[in-house]
Specification:
The chain is of the alpha/beta class. It is built from 5 helices and 5 strands, in the order E-H-H-E-H-E-H-E-E-H.
């Protein structure tokens, strides 16, 4: 399985940013643990704070990867363009969020991604990524 994790804005600050919500581990450390946990899958990782770069990456990998795990961060709630990019590609996308977005501010209850995603996993901390990988393997 060739699975890519794509993270959006501010997720490069994991480990530093609001540890009471996002935990104290960096994503890079967690990604290494995921690679060890799923040695038979080719996992790759991309992060950008820029909406257009996220769209370009989805278009780049969206026809030859086996799965995409997308945490678009705040763009989840604002980007019709990212939603349209997911709709346009063939590779299935699982939308992931570390926090339970429905337990937060009302604007975080809207997603422009969910309607085009294979599924949505949220609120399980960093384990949300592990659950998304498992969804592609089962």
């Amino acid at each position: 399985m060739n699975i890519i994790i794509i993270n959006g804005p501010n997720l490069n600050l994991l480990g530093k940013r609001e540890p009471e919500i996002y935990g104290s581990a960096t994503f890079e450390d967690y990604f290494e643990a995921l690679q060890k946990q799923f040695p038979n899958s080719k996992l790759s990782y991309y992060q950008s704070n820029i909406e257009g770069e996220l769209i370009s990456k989805l278009q780049e990998v969206g026809f030859d990867s086996d799965g995409i795990i997308l945490n678009a961060g705040a763009y989840t709630h604002t980007s019709i363009g990212i939603g349209d990019a997911i709709k346009a590609i063939k590779t299935p996308v699982v939308e992931v969020h570390i926090s339970n977005t429905f337990g937060r501010e009302a604007f975080r209850h809207q997603s422009y991604i969910s309607a085009h995603a294979k599924g949505v996993i949220l609120g399980f901390g960093m384990q949300s990524y592990q659950l998304a990988i498992q969804s592609f393997l089962s």
